[in-house]
Every structure is written in C-alpha cells, then in structure tokens.
Write a structure and sequence with these properties.
four-stranded antiparallel beta sheet; alpha+beta
C-alpha cells in the first residue's frame, strides 16, 4: 500500500524548478533557525535574497547542470552541479514535493561527488 501511495504521489520532473530551489538554499531558507548563518532581520533577509538571485543567475549562465534520477517510480533525486562554487546540491522528490537534502563540494575535474 505504501509503495502504491509513493508511486502515485511521485512528483514529475517538470515540477522541479532548479533555479528556484537553488535560490531558496542559497538565501538560507533551508537552514535551522538557530544556525548563525541564517539571515535574521529584514535587511539581512533582503540582502540574502538579492545575493542568492545573483548567484543562481551566474550559475545558470556558467552552465549549471540539473539531473533527475528516478528510483522504481516511487522517489526521485534531483541534483544541481553549481559550476562556480564546485558544489552539488541534492533534493528528494516524494509525496508531491521536492525536499532539500544536502550540498556536497566536489574536487576540481570530478563530475560527481563520490559516495562516502
């Protein structure tokens, strides 16, 4: 029953908006409330939003790569390779939503981070 539920609620590839999701991560939306890097006041949040927009646009112009991998039709993993910061960002797609999982730096010349 759980597999059927996950299968019917797996988000479509078209529902993943890479630029929008990357902006959310870059401006600190996904950080815990007690994280010192999370913008607190109105001015900090506005500056983080502008900075994230500029960085996401720069990444798009530099040729960031978006990949979506499906697992048995029940969940998907989306990844964005940020060519400027040399970072991979990952999201899990399940139950009609995309949820940010993590970011991982990759060495120069490596195409994808190696599993630990």
């Amino acid at each position: 029953v759980m597999g059927l539920y996950l299968f019917t609620t797996c988000p479509t590839n078209d529902s993943f908006d890479g630029k929008k999701e990357l902006k959310r991560v870059l401006r600190g939306d996904k950080l815990p409330e007690d994280d010192p890097a999370k913008p607190k006041g109105w001015l900090e949040k506005a500056m983080a939003k502008v900075s994230a927009s500029l960085e996401a646009e720069a990444a798009a112009l530099a040729g960031c790569k978006v990949e979506i991998t499906e697992f048995l039709g029940i969940v998907k993993v989306a990844s964005i390779q940020h060519p400027i910061t040399k970072t991979w960002y990952f999201w899990l797609g399940a139950v009609n939503k995309w949820r940010y999982i993590m970011a991982k730096d990759f060495p120069e010349g490596e195409q994808r981070p190696k599993a630990d």
